[in-house]
Amino acid sequence: MKINRESALPLDKFIEFALYDKDNGYYMKKNPFGKEGDFITAPNITRLFSEIIAIWVITFWKSIGSPKKFNLLELGAGNGEMMKVIIATLKKFPECANNCNFQIHEKSIFLINQQKKNLKSDDITWVDDINKANSNPTIFLANEFFDALPIKQFFRKKQSWFERFVDLKEIDKAEFKEHITDIRKIEKNLKFEISKNQDIIEYSPLSFKYLKDICSIIKKNDGGILVIDYGYLNSKMYETLQAVNKHKYSNILRDIGDSDITYNINFSLFEKFVDQFNDLDCIINSQKKFLTSMGIIQRAEIVSENIPFSKKTDLFYRIRRLIDEKQMGELFKVMLIKKKKNKFKTGFKID
Description:
By secondary structure, this protein is an alpha/beta fold. It is 36% helix and 24% strand. It has helices spanning 11-20, 26-29, 42-45, 47-63, 81-90, 94-97, 109-119, 183-190, 205-221, 267-274, 287-293, 296-303, 309-323, 328-331; strands spanning 9-10, 70-75, 100-105, 124-126, 138-143, 152-157, 160-167, 175-181, 200-203, 223-232, 242-245, 248-250, 260-262, 265-266, 280-286, 332-339.
């Protein structure tokens, strides 16, 4: 993407440049996943995570009437590991797999090539525009997708709102700037109020666009979206912007293009946004409660029956990373958006 370094960039445009510039963007030139990358996602911790998601997909597919044709569309499939395991698992249930169009929506050409190498399957199509999907019901999967979308930040100072910008005149001396802004005008364009009772605002225009498009598709064709991401439920927003390089937090304005830039999803904001669609429902659970209610511990016990003790210990260590309240269990949330008339709650039943 071309940028004008003579003027400061709004934060979301800076993040777009840092992550997705076709030549130097973080996601466009390297594989960020695994020990050699900068972070490890749940599908790469243990394949049991993806198996559980596959079983959830089957149960949700049944809840929408077991349609003869449906799309399973993963948003931002990383290195393809989750989709690989999901396809292998679903093939054990041919009545579901034979009706499924497996699809991936991915922006990074580099990651698309990684996915094609990992998946080695003719069963998958890559879609540029989710709005061009056919009229079949669609089940969307978004594991750590929304946290990678560029965000805007606004700060209230006395009675005025200021938007965060980044001055990139000298890329090795990038610095934050703040410009006064009319928050009411922004809300009018969004057709959505974000400033009430807030002192800090973080939101992603692109996330809202995806949610709007996906909600419209669900309303029209049926289906749902399962969102798995780290975030919080407080209605009060706070600053969560961060950069990660080699599994450690780093300075957002240093190593531009070589660090991941991310933030914590405000799931209350997502829920409020979805409320605009009157006939859609939004339910949220912690990753711990979702995975345990789906039987991940019991599945691990079955898998570990005939393996050496060292491998059994390693497996349960990995499961603990996913469900421990001090690790991913509470930090990560799982959100389902579906039609209200569908009373499906598998993975979301509250004790």
